[in-house]
């Protein structure tokens, strides 16, 4: 999984039927010190994350391993909201 | 599979229900000389690796296999702790 920050939301009325009822969040990967990287992508929110929160994202076909995203055209799912990181270095 | 060093832990109370109780470790992909080969990722740990230990991990959908609950969104899992590496 990767660490990312929720930076926005995508609203789309015309979309694949499987995506109806899913929350599409714009997320930007972050470093361990929460410094934002430059790229971003869209992930389906399975845990109700708010904008600005640091989350964990699962990508690829594993992203479909939830009741919300099963058998749908989804390759990235927000599956945890980070409380704290313990980093040794 | 790839080699990595465990560099931390992620604490998350709000998460997908089947992840309750899962230990999520921050791992730094490295090569056999412990040179960094990629940015850190988070992997579910089912073998009980400690911080600083060298491990090897599996990515993609195969990462779900070690985990007891099948319907779980995981794309990286630690599957072994390295004792020694012999290079010929």
- What oligomeric arrangement do these chains adopt? heterodimer
Structural class of chain A: mainly beta
Which topology of chain B does CATH recognise? Answer: OB fold (Dihydrolipoamide Acetyltransferase, E2P)
CATH architecture of the domain at 1-53 in chain A: Beta Barrel
* Strand segment tally of chain B: 6
Mean pLDDT level of chain B: 96
Q: By helix and strand content of chain B, what is the structural category?
A: mainly beta
Instruction: Quote the average pLDDT of chain A.
Output: 97
Q: Main beta sheet of chain B, described?
A: 5 strands, mixed, barrel
Strand order of the largest sheet of chain B: 1-3-4-6-5
Q: Which residues of chain B form runs of ≥5 with pLDDT under 50?
A: none
List the helices and strands and how they pair.
The complex is a heterodimer of chains A (89) and B (88).
Chain A: E1 2-10, E2 24-29, E3 41-45, E4 54-59, E5 76-81, E6 84-87
Parallel strand pairs in A: 3-5
Antiparallel strand pairs in A: 1-2, 1-4, 2-3, 4-5
Chain B: E1 2-11, E2 14-15, E3 23-29, E4 41-45, E5 54-59, E6 76-81
Parallel strand pairs in B: 4-6
Antiparallel strand pairs in B: 1-3, 1-5, 3-4, 5-6
How is this structure best described in words?
Chain A is mainly β. Chain A has a domain of 53 residues: OB fold (Dihydrolipoamide Acetyltransferase, E2P) (Beta Barrel), CATH 2.40.50. Chain A has no helices and six strands. Chain A has a five-stranded mixed barrel. In chain A, 35% of the residues are buried. The model of chain A has no long low-confidence stretch (mean pLDDT 97). Chain B is mostly beta strands and 88 residues long. Chain B has one domain: Beta Barrel (OB fold (Dihydrolipoamide Acetyltransferase, E2P)). Helix content of chain B is 0%, strand content 41%. Chain B contains no helices and six strands. A five-stranded mixed beta barrel of chain B has the order 1-3-4-6-5. Chain B is globular and about 45 Å long. The model of chain B has no long low-confidence stretch (mean pLDDT 96). The chains are: A mainly beta (89), B mainly beta (88). At the A-B interface, strand 4, strand 5 and strand 6 of A face strand 1, strand 2 and strand 4 of B. Strand 5 of chain A pairs antiparallel with strand 2 of chain B.
């Amino acid at each position: 999984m990767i660490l990312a920050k929720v930076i926005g939301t995508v609203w789309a009325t015309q979309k694949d039927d499987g995506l109806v009822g899913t929350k599409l969040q714009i997320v930007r990967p972050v470093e361990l010190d929460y410094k934002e990287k430059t790229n971003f992508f869209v992930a389906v929110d399975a845990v109700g994350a708010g904008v600005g929160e640091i989350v964990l994202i699962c990508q690829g076909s594993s992203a479909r391993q939830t009741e919300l995203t099963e058998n749908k055209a989804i390759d990235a799912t927000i599956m945890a909201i980070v409380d704290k990181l313990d980093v040794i270095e | 599979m790839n080699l990595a060093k465990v560099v931390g832990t992620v604490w998350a109370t709000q998460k997908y229900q089947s992840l309750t109780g899962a230990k999520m470790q921050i791992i730094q992909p490295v090569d056999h000389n412990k040179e960094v080969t990629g940015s850190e990722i988070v992997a579910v740990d089912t073998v009980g690796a400690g911080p600083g230990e060298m491990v090897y991990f599996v990515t993609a959908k195969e990462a779900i296999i070690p985990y007891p609950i099948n319907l779980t969104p995981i794309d990286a899992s630690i599957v072994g702790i390295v004792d020694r590496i012999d290079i010929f």
